[in-house]
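Q: Give me the 3D complex with Phenylacetyl coenzyme A.
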Amino acid sequence: VEKSLEEQFEEKIANEIRIEPKDWMPEQYRKTLVRQISQHAHSEIVGMLPEGNWITRAPSLKRKAILLSKVQDEAGHGLYLYSAAETLGTSRDQMINDLHSGKAKYSSIFNYPTLSWADIGAIGWLVDGAAIMNQVPLCRTSYGPYARAMVRVCKEESFHQRQGFEIMMSLCNGAPAQKQMAQEAFNRWWWPTLMMFGPKDEESPNTEQSMRWKIKRFTNDELRQRFVDMMVPQAEFLGLTVPDKDLKWNEAKNGYDFGDVDWEEFWNVVKGNGPCNKDRINARVKAHEEGAWVREAALAHAQKRAQREAA
Ligand code: FAQ
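A: Here is the predicted complex, encoded as structure tokens.
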């Protein structure tokens, strides 16, 4: 007997065979992927802004060159991910409109301000650290174009994390005022970074189905726990104090117990009321408007070329 399209799809998922753009897929699978991949793309693009704020003020030419190239990598990741989402039948214009109108989400973390140079270290160390924790499993996600994009993205993210850790190292080995800057940045970024993994499993409406479809390979809480377990020894190595009075090694579970994230703050930021949400969207809209002439010129050029070739 011929298997139904749905059965064939389920069989591929069960056998770890990637789903490709031209394959049949349930509408809800397509929708979930467009949602996650486009949010991921938006996060990369908006994620350029907090760090971009420090390019002109980096403390040395070397630091400036490194930061500039990190931010360029993020632009690349965003474009890569928009392309992956486009293979599912959505257009880039649509995705960008949704970002600019406030309809689409992007990671809560990028709505916090970068107040000192140490924040650039903390972002690389913590935010890119969390991104890697979340994205390495996505290299095995069931949708082919997303999985393949993640391979390169993760390689670049690990360089980003090392540069962040190295900034933190320099500050922690520096003058007492520098060490204090590092601690203050750590205090600012620790809890928002834990929020990046999303709501608690019991409050995460998408996890169960995404795990079944092997879009997600671990739950939000599983990845958050792994992240804490990875970061605490690194903080100790830097001589920094994790800003959590409930943090405690738990021998039985072979991991750390840690305090509760402020979920009210999280949802507040997700709903658009974080410290920088409005600035971020305004900056993106402005960049888009100011780039209109570039898009028009590129289109006009493509048209001329096509006409020339046709003639
Ligand atoms: N912020 O049911 P779940 C980077 C939303 S790394 C805002 O658990 P899901 C690199 C969620 O969308 C950051 N919203 O959802 C970089 C959903 O709303 P919806 C980007 C959040 O999808 C580093 C609702 O809450 N990484 O950019 C957040 O199963 C440094 C319920 O949540 C990715 O996007 C949040 N933190 O799990 C760049 C990774 N958390 O859509 C520059 C790929 C949840 O139903 C500098 N994405 N929400 O309206 C994922 O792994 C997943 O989508 C999760 C959320 C884990 C983020």
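A quick observation: The pocket of Phenylacetyl coenzyme A is lined by residues 35-36, 39-40, 43-44, 47, 74, 105, 107-108, 123, 127-128, 131, 134, 195-199, 204-207, 210, 220, 270 (CB under 6 Å).
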